[in-house]
């Protein structure tokens, strides 16, 4: 991967294509998981996939949340689903047929989850075999894990070269993240890297939210990024356009920074503390009248 | 701390309460210790050490602390006097 990343730094898209013809790609497979539900796994998978593709990498996002398909709608590709992950595993279609190409960004693909099956339709071995098929054709495979620690989680994590744990700064979410970290370390897939999502700088300032340092102290893993709680995530999800594809909100920038760190570059962490809250902006607005 | 917290008599920030609660619950989670086991450990430690020295069981403290991703059991046991010396 590092070897390839070196070439991708070349500015011209022509060079990129040229290099691709003789450099064998070997995808980095990353699973985004959390333990607790609803903390932002699907949002992160969609935004990071789009951000990585926008940087010129070839990316496939896999929805491993079988039975609760979501990544398709978050990415805005729900009307183009024909085959799904389980169809590939069952041999109903070839893997290429299940890949939806995102027409908005070159090099971005989605393999949707099956909606009418359950997690047991797929095994960890199936996932490993499926991801191995993708290794030569992609730079990154991002897997959106279901919540929990059962079969669906095991399926999602089995093929991962790198596990990204996402949490919010809340007691239950951090506790579950700790459990996940323990499990992936036991499987020798650790230590994993952390994204703290839905941070509220205004609440941290008031002392009413667990701070970034505290979460890191408690979980003792490396930080990949911090994403603020941001309305733009909801509005962009409403439209089916990942924030990293369209807007310049703080959350979008935060996800783009995470994507850059994934490619091995260092980016300073956003200084969320100095980001103005809505109320601060409002009071400034009124005082400026 | 918010205005109202200050007004109604400075209770602890909910953020630090959350942090403390997390630390405690994670110790239990990580060591997978059923409740009550801690007291059993304490009693047995007292039993063993008391064979050799007199200890201040009141001042004794057993805790679980965490460094990096390792939890450690720390026993702080004040010794009153050595049994050996006592016998002499
Ligand atoms: N940074 C953010 N700011 C605001 N809203 C967010 C942010 N991240 C996620 N959300 C919202 O939180 C909700 C849950 O997000 P998402 O579906 O990504 O979580 P999940 O972990 O995939 O959930 P599940 O466990 O059900 O799969 C969504 O409505 C999403 O729009
Ligand atoms: Mg999800």
The biggest beta sheet of chain A, please?
Answer: 8 strands, mixed
Which distinct ligands sit in these coordinates?
adenosine-5'-triphosphate, magnesium ion
Q: How many distinct domains of chain A?
A: 1
Strand order of the largest sheet of chain A: 3-4-2-5-1-6-7-8
Give me the CATH superfamily of chain A: P-loop containing nucleotide triphosphate hydrolases
Helix content of chain B: 40-55%
Terminal Cα span of chain A: 54 Å
Straight-line distance between termini of chain B: 60 Å
Report the major sheet of chain B: 2 strands, antiparallel
Cα-atom Rg of chain A, whole angstroms?
Answer: 19 Å
Summarize the structure in words:
The complex is a heterodimer of chains A (289) and B (88). Chain A is an alpha/beta fold and 289 residues long. Helices cover 45% and strands 15% of the residues of chain A. Chain A has a single domain, classed as Rossmann fold, CATH 3.40.50.300. Chain A has helices at residues 2-8, 13-22, 41-54, 71-75, 85-90, 95-98, 124-135, 151-157, 171-186, 201-206, 212-219, 231-239, 243-246, 250-262, 278-287, and strands at residues 28-33, 59-63, 100-101, 108-111, 140-144, 162-167, 193-199, 222-228. Chain A has an eight-stranded mixed beta sheet with strand order 3-4-2-5-1-6-7-8, sandwiched between helices. In chain A, helix 9 links the parallel strand 6 and strand 7 (193-199). In chain A, helix 3 crosses helix 14 (250-262) and helix 7 packs parallel to helix 8. Chain A starts with a helix and ends with a helix. Chain B is an alpha+beta fold and 88 residues long. Chain B has one domain. Chain B has helices at residues 3-7, 14-31, 37-50, 83-87, and strands spanning 53-55, 61-67, 70-76, 79-82. Helix content of chain B is 48%, strand content 24%. Chains A and B meet through helix 9 and helix 10 of A and helix 2 of B. The complex binds adenosine-5'-triphosphate and magnesium ion. Adenosine-5'-triphosphate is lined by residues 34, 37-43, 65, 70, 147, 197-198, 227, 229-230, 233-234, 237, 251 of chain A.
């Amino acid at each position: 991967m590092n070897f390839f990343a070196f070439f991708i730094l070349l500015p011209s898209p022509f060079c990129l294509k040229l290099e691709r013809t003789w450099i064998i790609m070997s995808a980095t497979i990353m699973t985004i998981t959390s333990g607790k539900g609803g903390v932002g796994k699907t949002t992160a998978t969609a935004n990071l996939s789009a951000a990585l593709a926008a940087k010129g990498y070839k990316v496939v996002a896999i929805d491993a949340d079988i039975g609760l398909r979501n990544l398709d709608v978050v990415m805005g590709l729900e009307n183009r689903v024909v085959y799904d992950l389980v169809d590939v595993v069952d041999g109903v279609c070839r893997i290429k047929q299940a890949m939806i190409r995102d027409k908005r960004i070159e090099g971005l693909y989605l393999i949707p989850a099956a909606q009418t099956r359950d997690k047991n339709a797929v095994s960890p071995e199936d996932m490993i075999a499926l991801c191995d098929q993708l290794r030569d054709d992609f730079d990154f495979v991002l897997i959106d894990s279901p919540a929990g620690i059962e079969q669906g989680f095991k399926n999602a994590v089995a093929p991962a070269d790198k596990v990204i744990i996402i949490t919010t700064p809340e007691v239950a979410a951090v506790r579950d993240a700790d459990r996940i970290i323990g499990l992936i370390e036991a499987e020798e897939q650790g230590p994993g890297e952390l994204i703290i999502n839905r941070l509220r700088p205004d609440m941290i300032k008031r002392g009413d939210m667990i701070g970034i340092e505290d979460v890191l102290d408690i979980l003792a893993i490396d930080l990949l990024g911090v994403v603020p709680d941001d309305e733009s995530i909801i509005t962009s999800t409403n439209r089916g356009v990942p924030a990293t594809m369209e807007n310049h909100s703080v959350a979008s920038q935060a996800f783009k920074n995470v994507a850059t760190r994934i490619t091995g570059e260092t980016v300073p962490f956003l200084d969320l503390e100095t980001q103005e809250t809505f109320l601060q902006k409002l009071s400034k607005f009124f005082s400026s009248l | 701390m918010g205005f109202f917290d200050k007004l109604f008599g400075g209770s602890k920030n909910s953020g630090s309460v959350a942090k403390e609660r997390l630390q405690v619950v994670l110790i239990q989670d990580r060591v997978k210790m059923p409740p009550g086991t801690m007291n059993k450990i304490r009693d047995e430690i007292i039993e063993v050490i008391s064979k050799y020295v007199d200890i201040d069981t009141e001042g004794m403290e057993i805790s679980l602390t965490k460094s990096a991703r390792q939890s450690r059991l720390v026993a702080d046991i004040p010794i009153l006097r050595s049994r050996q010396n006592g016998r002499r």
